[in-house]
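Quick question about two entries, pasted in order.
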Amino acid sequence: MKKLKALSVKTLYLELWLTILLGLGIGIVTYIALQQVNYAFIQSKWVTATYIPKRLDATIDELQQYITDNNISSDQPVEIYKWSKKHPLVYFYIEKDGQIVYNFYVDYTSDEAATISAYNQELIEESYFYNPYSYSYTITLADGDCNLKCFEDFQYDLNTKIQIINLFISGALIILIITMLVRKRIHYIKEVTYGINILEGGDLNYNIPVKGDDEIAHVAESLNSMCVALASQMENEKKALQANNSLVTALSHDLRTPLTTQMGYLEILKEHHYNSPEEMDKYIGNALNTCLQIKEMSDRLFEYFLAFDPNPMRPAEALSEYSGMDLFMQLISEFTPPLMEKDFRFNVNEAKEDFTIRVNTDDILRIFNNVFTNIDKYADETMPVDITISKEDDYALLSFTNQIRDVPRINESSKIGLISISSLMKRQGGSSLVKTTPTTFTLELKFPL
């Protein structure tokens, strides 16, 4: 079935077979046409009235010259037979004084030559010697003049030679047609190879031309798509490197300030430069606040490197099996109260039936922490946040939808919360999807069942 389906698609195999069939078809038609011309030419008056008599005359003259040079007489048919074997296109009989002295049918070098010659004497006279299609010549032997009757195969010989020429022309035409059509694909292969060399040189913006719909064209199309993807990946890596450098620089600067402040408070406490217990508590509280700032910044740094982890997949033994409804509702009940104290409201839509998922506990906690941190920063607390839990065919869907604040409550410099969520979801074998409008933000988390 696959082979039949493949035949309906334009492939190199199909192109090659069509090319061969086209070449053979044109070659056969050409050969038939040339043969028709050949037949008309062989039957033409020039061949029958000029070419054949002229060539036959030349052959008989050659025979006469041979007889004269070798002084051959009528009782030397063996010598005439030797000459005849070298000229197989002429068949002749020689008659002298009413007797056949040479018969082309007889092998005069054999022991039975005389018997065969006598046996064919009467047959020759009746059937061949007086045939109206024969040619008659007078030749001179050493012992007198003789009558020569001959037949020729010059017309057949000419026809055979022209047939061979026609076959050669038709075969050459077939090879030429196949070569021309195959050469086109070979030229395209060279174009693709040239494009590959350019891509190897580092010019990923070069676009290999796509011609046709066969395997070579598909290779060119795939190479172009690969270059686009590779260029995009390199650009993303470049941006990620720039973002990494910017983050490290920013965090280094941000960490230096609370660290310097904390060192100052600790120096004051160490040297007891305070006037009352209340002032000491104040310095301790300020030092604790700077510790919290440093912790938050270090958490951002950890999330950033987690988001760009090249091997995010968790091994099977690192995943635990949970009831999806119980786990999600427990986490929602833990993360919503702090936000509800800030006047946030939550509408939770539970799934109609329970389901089982396999997740890593640490990762799922980080995911929920990022989700609710983003809600705290960017959601409008005057509008409810919709949380929907549903079960699809092969995955569980956890969706968060909120209205977007005009101005974020807390500015975040790294902007990697969503990237971190995406990476953490991939660790579970799941995925995340963000949908936004000018006023709403939706985050969908898909967990495999």
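Here is the second entry:
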Amino acid sequence: MGSWIEGSIERQDDERCLVQIGGTSADAVAFWLGVLDADFEIVDSPELATAVARIADRYARAIAPDE
């Protein structure tokens, strides 16, 4: 599954940082965000938000299948 291309990390406060990253695709970045096992908020990328929602929906169906 894709990889990070480049990015930066900027400390916001004691509990948060702003991460700006690029990747081979929004799907690849969404995958790697999930692997990090950390809470995150998508600030400015509709494509990434769509990719994360697609993964979240698939995981939700895995634990609560339609009846």
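Reply: The chain has a mean pLDDT of 87. The two ends are 32 Å apart (CA to CA). Hope that helps.
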